[in-house]
Amino acid sequence: MVKDSRIPGFYKLNREKRIEKLKEATGIDAKVLEPLIDPGKVDLEILDHMIENVIGSMTLPLGIATNFAVNDKDYLIPMAIEEPSVVAAASNAARMARDHGGFQATDTGPVMIAQIQAIDVPAPFFAKNRILENKQEIIELANEQDPILVKFGGGAKDVRVKVIDSHVGPMVITELIVDTRDAMGANAVNTMAEALAPMIEELSGGRVLLRILSNLADLRLVRVRATFDKEMLGGKEVVDGIIAAWAFAEADPYRCATHNKGIMNGIDAVVIATGNDFRAIESGAHSYASVNGYSSLTKYEKNSDGHLVGSIEIPMAVGLVGGATKVHPVARACVEILGVDTSTELAHVIASVGLAQNLAALRALAAEGIQRGHMSLHARNVASTAGARGSMVGKIAERLVKEKNIKVERAKEIMAELTGKS
After folding, report:
1. Top-level CATH class of 111-213?
2. Of the chain's two ends, which shows fewer C-beta atoms within 10 Å, N or C?
């Protein structure tokens, strides 16, 4: 468990010293962190069993976001992402919320929905009633498929039925509501849905086609709120600018697409680091944002003291058991760094990062323009591409930014010049 996620100057340390700080802060055994620090240590035999036709692996940069306190507990948060500024921005936003209690998160529980589609039903509304009359039998049959899940307090809890119109006629959709505990739940709910198909066919008089979970996990919501200090943000004008920028996203889907993408920059980075399914999270988030017309997943207001208060409400179907989270050694190391005990706690942390990331992006847009932060990191990438290494990278990047000429050719010229002077 991390005692304090506030590590001043963490970004100024070289990689080796950051790793030492991480070990000190978490107390994690060096062998656990080894695959994370040196991806070459990951056994390709493990990867060969994860997907088909494996030939190797692709390494993403993995950074640590600092300063996070969620529900009065500190976290160091692994983030796997290729985009510059994301880790730094999330850390900075978390620092602004820290003095006001950090992030406070609640949830609706780890509940997923399995859908069973019946077509060619002679009397759809009659069939709906028949299925609901047999709800208890349906739940019992579903729970027979996963007694271990039931043992730990999960399992099928309810049944919903709806009749929908479609291009091929009316359909009866039976929805099984399942508490998946610490699993994301796809395998569990799909197995239950498969087992229920014959019963649904008998009750409806139709033919069951699809039986699969929904990634619109609107029964598995996480809600997070935080207060961001007005002075640390830059004062009243910046606070008002952030609210106006958010209002733009609420009013215009073209802006909102990029606004919500910024939220997912933070969320996906943690989801990937922990071996969870970022495509499912993306799908659920954007579907949820579209339920009543595409809108922001976050909200921003001012409190009576003039501080910015932000909140996010988002589906968060992540797990700690099964899949890459348990198989991949880097994912296992990241989960250990986080120190989370349940999938719900993990969901709280991930949603908090989403709120922090969004706030940081809005502040950059409202106060200084998004390119300023990106420019410095982009310059470092260009310097590296030009062949610079070590301290030379920073020296060349500084010149490139100052000249506003961030190109590989110019970086090579500066490197030749500096090398000639040394």
Report:
1. alpha beta
2. C
- Choice among 24, 83, 252, 368 that is catalytic: 83
Topology of the domain covering 372-421: Helicase, Ruva Protein; domain 3 (1.10.8)
Active site residue 378: no
Mean pLDDT of 181-198: 97
Kindly report, residue by residue over 269-292, the tens digit of the pLDDT: 999 999 999 999 999 999 999 999
371: confidence class by pLDDT, cuts 50, 70, 90: very low
Q: Over 50: is that where the pLDDT of 332 sits?
A: yes
- At 61 the three-state DSSP class reads coil
Enter the tokens of residue 222: 């996480």
Beta bridge partners of residue 179, listed in sequence order: 111, 155
Distance CA 178, CA 195 (A): 14
* Extended beta strands in 295-358, E state: 298-302, 308-315
Whole-number Å distance between alpha carbons of 111 and 158: 11
Catalytic residue among 179, 182, 268, 277: 277
Known active-site residue 83: yes
Residue 103 pairs with which residues in a beta bridge? 70, 226
Burial label, 12 (beta-carbon count in 10 A; 0-12, 13-18, 19+): exposed
Neighbour tally for 237: CB within 10 Å: 12
One of 3.90.770.10, 3.40.50.150, 3.30.70.2740, 3.40.50.1820 is the CATH number of 10-107+222-368, namely 3.90.770.10
pLDDT score for 370: 43
Known catalytic residue: 261? Answer: yes
Distance between CA 309 and CA 214 in Å, rounded? Answer: 32
Mean pLDDT of all residues in 100-108: 98
pLDDT average, residue stretch 354-383: 80
Residue pLDDT, tens place only, 10-54: 988 999 999 999 999 999 988 999 998 888 888 889 999 999 999
* Catalytic site includes residue 404: no
Catalytic residue among 23, 100, 135, 261: 261
State how far the Cα of 297 lies from the Cα of 314, in Å rounded to an integer.
Answer: 7
Structural tokens at position 278: 């970022």
Among 23, 100, 299, 374, the active-site one is: 374
Domain residue spans of the chain: 10-107+222-368, 111-213, 372-421
